[in-house]
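From the pipeline queue, job 12 of 40. The input is one protein chain; the requested action is below.

Action: predict structure.
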Amino acid sequence: MPRLKKEKPNFEAVQRVLYSYYLNGNRIAPVIGVSGTTARKRMQNPELFTLKDLYNISKCLGVPWHEIREAMIR
């Protein structure tokens, strides 16, 4: 996850957004191109996601990008 200059990203809010769409490691693993175990670790620790991972999740699994972006900035 990128570092913001002024504020620290709210990783818990990003995690809540992903879980609110009933996503788990097995559903996001093929989208971001990692194994199920790695995807579950990233779901538990969302600061390991890259922006590309989050964008692909939003594009392929129907999570609105603006919700993820707002959760990072909040």
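Job complete. The chain has one domain: 11-73.
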